[in-house]
Amino acid sequence: MSEQELDELTDQAPPPEIDSKYRLIILAAKRSKQLQRGARPRIEIDALKHKFTRIALEEVIQGKVQFHTTTDLDELVPAV
Is residue 74's pLDDT more than 60? Predict the structure, then answer.
């Protein structure tokens, strides 16, 4: 994914619970790992034409990934 594509995606309005681009990227990275391990995409997208990181970022931006934060280190934990 090019830097321009990443900027275009992160400029879209994320769900209100995601208060920074940093949180958005961390959550998408964790979701991308789930996809790499065999989780199915939650959006309609050709998984053969797009990388897991792109799919994960789209899922997060569209609000398809549920998550909660922990109080210890304010870590994001995507729901499986």
Answer: no
